[in-house]
Each structure stands twice: as C-alpha cells, then as structure tokens.
Amino acid sequence: MTTLITLGPQVLVGPFHDDVSRPLGPAGLILCVRADTDIDHACDVQVLRRELAERDRRVVELTGRLLAMEATLTWRLRRRMESMAARSPLSWLMRSALYLGRRAIEVWLDEGVAGVVQKTAAKVRLGRGLLPPSRSDELDAQYARWLRRQRLSARRLRREYLGQNSFRTWPLISVVIAADGSQPDSLNATIASVHRQIYPRWQLLVASGGMESGWPELPANDGAGSTPAQLAVRPRLADLLQRAKGEFIGFLAPGSQLSEWALLEVVRRLNTGVAPDVVYADEDEVDEQGRQRRPFFKPGWSPDLLLSIDYVSRFCIFRRELFEQACSAKDEIDVADRYDLVLRLTEAAESVAHIPKVLSHRRVGQPVSSPEAERRAVERALTRRGREATVWSIAPGSMPHHHRVVRYPLRVRPLVSIIIPTRDQVDLLRQCLRSIADRTDYDRYEILIVDNDSREPETLRFLAQVSATARVVHCPGAFNYSAINNLGVNYARGEQLLFLNNDVQVIAREWLTAMVEHAQRPEVGAVGAKLLYPDGTIQHGGVVLGIRGMAGHAFRHQPDEAEGYQGLAHVTRNCSAVTAACLLIRRAVFEEVGGFDEALRVDLNDIDLCLRIRRRGYLIVYTPLARLYHYEGASRRRLRPAHDERLFRTRWRKVLESGDPYYNPNLTRFAEDWSLAV
Length: 678
Hints:
There is one protein chain. The strands form five sheets. Strands 15, 16, 17, 18, 19, 20, 21, 24, 25 and 26 form a ten-stranded mixed sheet that branches. Strands 4, 5, 6, 7, 8, 9, 10, 11 and 12 form a nine-stranded mixed sheet that branches. Helix content is about 35%, strand content about 20%. The chain is an alpha/beta fold. It is built from 21 helices and 26 strands. The longest helix is centred in the N-terminal third of the chain and has 35 residues, at about 90-125. Helix 11 (about 320-325) packs across helix 12 and helix 12 runs parallel beside helix 13.
C-alpha cells in the first residue's frame, strides 16, 4: 500500500494514484513512501523543512497578489457584470456583450484604436458572427429544428434529381441485409425502406441463414426497373457475390431503414468527379413514435477513428472489385459481420467518400455486435496490416457505439527531446518540470528549456539550478514562438521532438508513451494530446478548421467525464491539426516540411505546421491517453494578432472555405461544442 503525503498548509493522507484528479497548488510537495517505511529514513527532515518553509512563503506571496487583484476596480466591476449576466433572462446577450467588450479592450491594449477598427472590419468582411451564440439546448432539440429546415419532399427530390439531372452512369446497386436474429417486424420495415427508394436500379439480397420457411413475405417491386428481390439462403460472402449483380454492393444493418433518397444520393456522389470506392453517410435514431433523434453527423474518412468505433457499417456502399482484392476465396466470411467487412474493404480502397446527409435511421434498441466480436475484427485487421498491437474494449455506457483503444508496442525507444519555451513565470515552469519528472513512465527523454529573455531574479536562479537536469538555451529578442521552437530543435538530440508549453502539467503517467506509439507509425506526421483546464473540463481535443472563420479547439469546456458528441473526445482519431501546447513529431517530418514558419510569430503557427504536414500525405493523430492540464493564457494573453491571422487566412483560404474534412458541415461553425448548425 502507498500513501500520499502533501506537506504545506494542510496535511492530507490518502491513497496515491498515478493519474491525479486535480492540479497541485504552488504549495504542494509530493512524497510517495511505503506505509510500513519509517518516514525518517525516506528523506532528510531538514530538506523537507526548508522546502516547506519556501512553499509557505510562496503561498503567502501568491495569496497577497490574489487579494490585491480582487481589490481592483476592474476585477470588482467584471464580477458584478458577470453576476448580472447570469441572472438576466437575456443572459446570452449579456455574455455576448461582455465577450465583445473584453476582446475590444485586449485589442486596444495591444494594437491601439486602429487595431480595434481594423480587426472589427476584418471580422465583418469574413462574414463571421460577432456574438457567440448560446448552445445550452439539448442535441435532440437542436436536431428537431434542423429537421424542420432540411426536410424535403420525395416529390421535390424526384423532380430535382431525376427530372433535371442527367447522371453519366446509372449503376445497379445490390443491397445486402443479414437477417439472422432479427425480428420479422423490424426486418420487414428494413426491406420496405429499400422498396421505397426513388432510385430505380437496385437489387435486394437478404441473408437468412437458411430460414426460408416461415420467412415474412418480401414486398413486391414497383416495376420501376429494379432487379427482383432475392432471398440468399447462406449468409456467406462467396454465395452472395454469386447472386449479387450490382456494380456496387451495399450493406444495411437489419432494423435500420433507408431514407427514400438514400440510393439516389449515393449515385449522385458516384457521378460527381472521380467515383470513390467506398461511400458512407450520416445516420440518426427513430423511436417507437417515429420521432428522429440522436443524429450522428459523422467525420470524413478517419482510419484511426474506424479502429476506435464502427462509425461506417450501418449503411455503406462498396465497389464490387474491392471484394476480389480484399477477400480471399478461402475465407469463410459471414456478411453479418459488417464491421469486419468494412475493415477489410477499406484497406483495399483508394478513396473513401462521406455523404454529409442523414440517409439511414437506426431503430431504438437495435441490437449491435458484441464488443468481443468487434475487438477480434480489429485484431484481425491489424494482423493483416502487419501491426502488432493490443486492443482494449471500453464499455459504451449510453453511447450508440462500442469504443476501443489500440495500443502499439514500441519497436524501439527513441530519444524524445522535450522543448519548452519560457519567459519568467518560474512557478509554472517549476510545476511543469516536476510533473514530467514525477509522472512520466517513458524513460528516454531530454529537456531543453528555451529561455526568451527572462529577467526576474528568481527565474534566473531557477534556470541556473535546473541546468543539472535540463539544458537551457537562450533565445534573446522579441517573442516569436516559431523562432524559439526552431532554435530549440537546433540544439535537440532526439529523433522525436515534443513541443510543450511551460503552462502544462502532466496527469497520466503513460502520456509520452501513448504519443510515441503513434509517432513511430510511418504514416503519422504529428500526434496531439488531450488537454484539460484545472476545473476538469476539456481545453483541447484536437483542432477544427473553420470555427468562427479560422480554427477552434474541439470540445472546449466540455466536462471530461461527459460523453459529449458521440464520445469523440475520448477516442483516438484523426484531426486536421493539434495544438503545439503538447505536440510530438518525428524530426524527419519536421525537417521535411521546414519546421515552424517564423512569419507566424505568436499564433496559428502550430495549425500551419500541421496543415503542411497533412499536405505531404501524413496523418495527424489525437490520442486521449496523453492527458495533461493546460493553464491556457497563464503565460500570455490569448489575443490572436491580426498579422498572424491575415497571413494564415491568405495562405489557407481554400482549405478554410472548403471545410474541415474531419468535421461535419452540418455542425456549427460558431462554437467549439459540436452542436448543430441551426
């Protein structure tokens, strides 16, 4: 048994955990000893007393600063206005006014009146909303409003797509339903939804597992030119491929229903540009009263997300040639295992397309495959790809999907150079270094502190003392985050480069190991972490392009213990970018793209770096297993300089306007909570 002893104003004794649930204050000193060990032999008493006296002094000093701050007129006025806003029935308007006022003051302090005018005009030109909208309502309420805006009649769809559009090709699509274990009523509803399709060229195959007798009668075709529905006796892929006549083969989960225009939308996508090999779409849930709820507006193609959750297989379409490439004739593949098929076929696909429209509806309580079956499917996929890995299943709770964690063993243990820019703020730096030393299970790392003109005597003394365990590199001159980090790389010896802010604190001991696991993969260019605010809410869960016209952090202010949007904050997935507050990248990739752009002096340089990495064909990976606290804004204000914003937007205008491929266009562009665009 171990005991946690905190020496400071209070003494707390309790069980010790590797993952701390809250940050340590500046007065915290952690000593971990065995309960049956005499503490007099665990440490030198005089050293502890000196440490205790020093921390008590710092507590008194910081408390004095806090009291002085709270006594200022500005602080008292802000508290009063926030209290009024919270009580006001127009609280969203009051919050918006406070938001605008604070931003205007920040710009005025840094750039003067001209900066306020210039930045306001830029926001208006970009077409961005100045008032951050309220997002307090529930997802289902948002979805009800979204449906009222989006619903189109089948007649209008027929006129728009069949009357006015002339497709280049009208492929036959074979739709396969694996019916084993399905209730006849729900299966009838699934079959009927196929027969209601506006698109006429389809073929239906029902894999029944030999249950021909007593099977519910299939609805008759409407004579619109589709191939007669068939009943496949054996649910083996080889048998179905013999009967399937379509150029594309689709799979539909039993109990799910297609919207009337589902196949029409698929064919429309197949006729747009180069036809993809795989097509999938968004989905929602239908309750007993027929009400639509719990929509899943899915990200674009994300191979790491597919290993974490099955977000594709309820309704998906594949080019027929993929089956010949990916499925051996010797394999006895059951078509009921749609997830296994999706993993196999996407391995052979050259292009995967996502239709950001709700084309299928799952039934409330619809059975899902077991976590064990899905875990085995992922293990088989990793074996086919020549990857050694361990797959863990996670209980989904109220989530509609089973979640998994894939851990890749380290082939080697490369040296990681942890590069930490700093300027004064010695308390933050001290806490950051202590947490790395105490809570890092990866043993091969070096620390480089890049000091940008620190002047406080206490900081200078600390930098002189810490040189025994970390190298200090001096970078004089005006603050330029990109130049500071590039200089640190010049002094780094590691094969892997970890860029880390001085205002972070490690939570999970496996943080660095979890990041190196992905950085060793040749297809991965950069890896980001889950960062939390001190109150336990999420500060960073990946970066989303296009939020308020630029970029934002996914799931900001969402409680870490909450499910959030489809649980995506808690699974490994691909992103367009991640923050450099904690970013791991192989040195070879960093040098290939030219490092940080020093023209972006303060902000957006990390996103620019990630976009250049993605342009080279690499993946950006977000891992929730790397968990750290981030005291955002503690080391500098969060103001985004106009120069950096203009340069970034000019360079990446087309990317921003086309939308983030990992963020559904039906989700809001005005907030970071993944609520709907209503």
